[in-house]
Amino acid sequence: MQNDAILTDDFGRKHNYLRISLIEKCNLRCTYCMPADGILLSPKKDIMTADEIYAIAKTFVNNGVDKIRLTGGEPLLRKDFLEIIAQLALLKTEISITTNGILIDKHIEVLKQNNVKKINLSLDTLVASKFQTITLRNQFEKVIDNLHLLLNNDFKIKINVVLIKGFNDNEIIDFIKLTELLPLSIRFIEFMPFAGNEWDKSKMVSQKEILDQVQNHFPESDLEKLEDDKNFTAREFKIKNYLGSFGIISSITNPFCDGCNRIRLTANGKIKNCLFSNSETDLLTAFRNGESIENLIGFSIRNKKKLRAGMNTFDDINNPVLNLNNRSMIAIGG
Asked: Tell me, what's the pLDDT at 321?
């Protein structure tokens, strides 16, 4: 029997979407995600095992979660990924993953066998040399090959593009043009501040700037606003007669907190009730001690702020005392 009240915060938001970070490691070094000097990894003993991931996820599902997304780091780096995905598939809930795409060809059959149909692919540029600049790895062709492999196997694909002014903001139209003949959803993400990613407001490309580029390139009559989902993070658009669509995740300039239904579980078993919050609740220690974790989950949800962990204004976001005490993105889980 489900107890939705545990996952409902003081503002009436029901959290039915659990994002689980499987690992803090990644095979890329994206500058907005991993600090230049790396991160201090949690000891292996502090990382959730496959059985612990399943048991904790089951508690969430029993209380109303019906969507699970696996993130990282790079989730496909987990040596026991097959075991994890097979166990989670037993929960009969929607499972999706966020990946950089490098290891997709080695795991695609496992994903298909366990009914994973939705993949978010992180790809910030369509230029091979710029890919190496931002990721510090020469894997562009591999990612593109695996993108087409996913499409050929009928996966539903969203491409996550973190926009950084002066780096890839001149590729907005190129990304949108991908959707003319491919059933892709491109999601442009405003650059967000996390520990070690050298965030500066001057590097951020806002929702308005994105739409200005689109409207300057395409006839006004060709830009169609799509209906947003109830718990949307991206405001969705498409170009008339294009096969795919694009969306804008405007966490900084136009946040979507009113409909937020997400809760994050880090690889070392702590839940974060907001991506921007540095507050965490340790579930793994309680679970290992044989204690019920439901009260801890409820406590975390009830303490969720109305807007961006209490950072209500752009000045708050721009305040390093507030926004850089958080984990780095790689340690949170994308």
From this structure: 56
Q: How many CB atoms within 10 Å of residue 323?
A: 20
* Cα torsion 322, 324, 328, 334: sign: positive
CB 202 within 8 A of CB 72: no
Kindly report the backbone phi and psi dihedral angles of residue 185, in degrees, each rounded to the nearest multiple of 5, phi listed first. -115, 115
Name every residue whose Cβ is closer than 8 Å to that of residue 204 and which is 6 or more positions away in sequence: 163, 164, 165, 190, 191, 252, 253
131: tokens are 């890919």
Q: DSSP of 254-267, one letter per residue?
A: S--GGG--EEEE-T
pLDDT for 34 equals: 77
Tell me the domains of the chain and their CATH numbers: 4-332 (3.20.20.70)
Q: Angle between the 104-113 and 140-152 helix axes, to the nearest 10 degrees?
A: 20
Structure tokens at 325: 């005490």
For the chain, 334 residues long, the average pLDDT of each consecutive 10-residue run is 80 96 93 75 96 99 98 97 98 97 98 98 98 96 99 98 96 99 97 65 91 97 92 92 96 84 96 86 98 96 81 61 55 57
The continuous run of DSSP H or E covering 237 comes out as: strand 235-239
Burial class (CB in 10 A: 0-12, 13-18, 19+), 116: buried
